[in-house]
Amino acid sequence: RLIEIAEPLYVGAARNVGIDAxxxxxxxxxxxDCLAAPGWNxxxxxxxxxxxxxxxxxxxxxxxxGLVAEAANRLLYWVRRPDxxxxxVAPFGRSYHRxxxxxxxxxxPGLRISEDDRLNRLADCIAPPxxxxxxxxxxxxxxxxxxxxxxxxxxxxxxxxxxPFRAMATQAEGGGVFAPPD
Length: 182
Hints:
Number of helices: 7
Number of strands: 7
Structural class: alpha/beta
């Protein structure tokens, strides 16, 4: 089912529309520049049926993407690769048990980025995420060096528009470690 909304929405607001429009006991999201590897749904469901409220997944480049795409993927997602040591994993790319939204609320609708981080922090107060290295999300990384550089510039621009990262830019060098607001 395709849901069209006339006004632009940030990702959190769009996710919330999807949550309300769905009825399944588990909700997962897949970004437009990603593909679900074979077994993506089944592996998530196994973890949820075993009791996980949230299931986090690794990110790999699409098969045959090339050296630049592999390097880009390792650069951006080194804490979300299937071989990342568990102590270093960043548990993103999550699916959620529907009852979790009743307990902690939905995604913040007004954030341009990091909407999942905000929701995940609340979810983690209820139950820790389950890391599922078998749930592979394939990311379409830039295949050429010029495209990689353009993507990094765009990524920086997006972060510069986001208040916590904007605040970092005004700190003197060595001004401390960034800690996102609660």
